[in-house]
Structures are given as C-alpha cells and as structure tokens.
Design a protein that fits this description.
Length: 186
Amino acid sequence: MAHSRVASRYVKSLLGLAVEQNALEQVHADMQLFDQACRNSRELAMMLRSPIIKHEKKKSILTVLFKGKVHALTMAIIDILTKKNREPLLPAIASEFGNAYNVYKGIEKATITTTIAIDEKLKQEIVAMVKKLSSKKEVELTTKIDKDLIGGFILNVEDRQIDASIKNKLKSLKVKFSENPYVKEY
C-alpha cells in the first residue's frame, strides 16, 4: 500500500512534467518499454529490488540499458529514484504511468475474451458498445482467446464484467438444477 502511494506521487509528477515539456507520448512509450522489460526479465526486476546490490551499480546498469533509447525526462526520473534509493519503485511507476496516461487522455481499457479470433467489424461494434458503457472518447481493446468458454464472450470494462459465455450459462444451469424443489431432503 505504501509503495503504491509513493509510486503514484512520482507518476503524477512525471505526468505533469511530461505534459509541460510536450513529451507525454515519448515518456509514455518509455514507461511501456520499461514495464515490458521488467515483466519479461525477472532478473531486472529482482536486481531493482535487491538490497545487496549497491545503488550506484543499479544506476549504472539502468544507464547502460536505457540511455540513448529513452527521453531525457525518463532518464531523469530513473536518476532521481536511484539517488534516493527508491529504484524498487520503478516497475510500479512504469505500470501505474500507463493508467495515469489513460485517465489523462480519456482512454478506456477493455478486454474481450472469445473462443475464436474476432474480425475487425466485430471489434468496432464492441468498441462502440464500450464507449456507451464508459462515456470515454477512446477505447483500447485487448482481445484474448479462451477455448474453455465453449462459445459467447466475456467483456471486461473498468470494474464491470459482462459474461455471455456458454460456460457461464452451463454453470448457472448446474446450480439451478442442484436446487431441485421436488426432491425431499432428509
């Protein structure tokens, strides 16, 4: 909890500076790059959290990895965090920055899970439906495939979930049949 609160303060500051310096898109791309690097490399994430590795060593590793590849503002936040011995917060900041960016830009994230890949026409219909549900200007739709659904779909928007899958309907039927009013219980 305390880490997320501290991370959100850095995110707010970074977002404000990025907007002020007209570098929001570049910093957002940098934070996505850093977030992916931490998710894909367990060693990088472990190195950032390690109390054994000295902060100067962590700073030099991050400099080698990202200098020249990211915006100066992104390097500045990495530099500040390593000077303050807060580099374990970097993955949380990178992840949280995406959420703050979406709020700032009015982008709604939605996930649709189906049994087969959906075509572009259906994607546009789902995006229109999500826009009505959330009243946001733009929608970032992620598609997933899950063969266990049997048919139908599951749509997640914010904290809402629309489950129109056959798997869910079969489960509700099973519950309904287990509550048989005609069988006497002993």
